[in-house]
Amino acid sequence: MRKKLLGIGLLGILFGVILGSVAAMPWWAETWDKGQAVEDRPYIGIYETSSLSQEEIDGLLYMREEEKLARDVYLTLYEMYGLPVFQNIAQSEQTHTDAILSLIEKYNLTDPAVDEVGVFTNPELQELYDQLIVQGSQSLEDALKVGALIEEVDIKDLEEWIAKTDNADIIQVYESLISGSESHLRAFTRTLSTYGVSYEPQVISEEQYQEIVSSSMSRGQMGRGMKGFGGRR
Fold first, then answer.
1. What angle do CA 16, 22, 25 make, to 5 degrees?
2. Could you give the CA distance from residue 192 to residue 196 in angstroms, rounded to a whole number?
3. For residues 149, 120, 89 and 171, what is the CA-based torsion angle, rounded to 10 degrees?
């Protein structure tokens, strides 16, 4: 009887540990279980952890602050103009920079981002932020064009960083961020059109731009990011 009770006790402890692990599961693990990415909520799959190349490290550190730059610019422009599109997309950009942070923490890297809005460790991004705020402060139309430009830059940079990695969890997050940036680019161009302004792409090609804005669904939702689930490929 004593052995039987001991066995029941061990099973109870094991069951409690399993329940506790499930309850503590982060949102990206829950999304993984559903088998698809939710737009603007990038996730990190259950991949084999491996060492990163210097280019992969550089990409994560840079994109952590670039996504923060987008958030900070939109928060500042929202304070200037009170247009909801800036506040809404700033919230999405928070999830983007948090997704990069999750990878930085996973690989035990030092986070370059600081909490203060408009302050950056990377001097290139600091200069870009300052320039964009000056440009966006000229008029509401200019502010919306700044938003569209930021999303173009995000798309181009993420595509370039994807080409420099074979790490599946990094690719997964980057591709999810591209999907979000495509959605944001459509939102800014639609808002500009309500003011009678037709946006012209400045970074990506006209062909790519038209493909993005003419689509009602981001490419990521139509299969982007479902490849490479097995770890490094």
1. 140
2. 7
3. 80
Of 139, 159, 135, 174, give the one whose Cα is nearest residue 37. 174
3-state SS, residue 41? strand
pLDDT in tens, 140-190: 999 999 999 999 999 999 999 999 999 999 999 999 999 999 999 999 999
Structure tokens at 89: 């997309």
List beta partners, residue 38. 41
Question: What span, in angstroms and rounded, lies between the C-alpha atoms of 85 and 197?
Answer: 16
Question: DSSP string of 83-135?
Answer: -HHHHHHHHHHHHHHHHHHHHHHHTTPPP---SSTT--SSHHHHHHHHHHHHH
Within 10 A of 53 (CB to CB), how many other CB atoms are there?
12
Is the full-model pTM beyond 0.90?
no
